[in-house]
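Input (Phosphotransferase):
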Amino acid sequence: MDASTLPPVPPGCRQRLTAHYGQVLDAWIDAAPELLTATAGRWSLTLKGYHDAGHASVLVTAVDRQGKHLLLKAWPDHDRYSRELRVLRLWHREKHDIVQAADNSRAVAALRAVGGVPGGAARPPHEEGLVAAEIQRAHEEGAHGQANVELPTLRNFIAEEVRPRIDRRLKLTEHRQRAERALFHTADLREESHRQTVLHADLYRENVPFTLDGQPVLLDPLPMTGDAAFDWAFWTIYYQVEGGTAYRLRRASRTSGIPVDDILPWCLLLSTDGLLYYEETGDPRLLQMMAVLDALLKIAATR
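Output:
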């Protein structure tokens, strides 16, 4: 694809971006092809086509003059761009060198395509053990480097976003009893100062691609600073909502050294938040999240 012929942003991408940011983003989305082609020209990249994924950016596959496969990523939110790149550089400054180029004025970056293709290489057997080890490595890096990376805090995220939306949705839900049983176990939830680190906070499976040699790479964070137990709970719940919750909870505790009793309340908070969101939006994963929450409640009953 010649840079000058990059078509409009795919409808699915437009829909996700406007759902996330609102219709105010329409003008930016219309201008995104020109923004990306201009940046690609500046960096002598050949554009291949859109990678229609994600909810907070526009992605285009590209190749540089040496034939290296890249993802050209444009963010409408300059603050999110800045935070994401700071954390990627913190985690991958030696191991993977993810950030190949960045244009701060345009909020566009060229990222190495992990595994050579969008989504990464084939996932190896027992991938979750490898991912757990990579999360722990990132938390260790983050614990040492958090003072140099200015980020929002988990404390504010929970107080200003998570708790208010749970409270609002509780008034409308058909699952109030189940949700309140879960929230009972979060009443004394608190962060531990000795576990403060840089959090990924968006540990869905699609955000952890694999390299050709079978190594996981953490990408697309929604970074903040806070208790590492939050990330382990997010990974436990959302890495694969359709199964493996109890296994990941045990694996999270073994890998991190954080007691199950410290991770479990975060799991119950996040799964309640997910349940109410899936219900409100008509998401087909609602039944899966109900099963996750029920399984966690059974574990909590035995503690």
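The chain has two domains: 3-116, 127-302.
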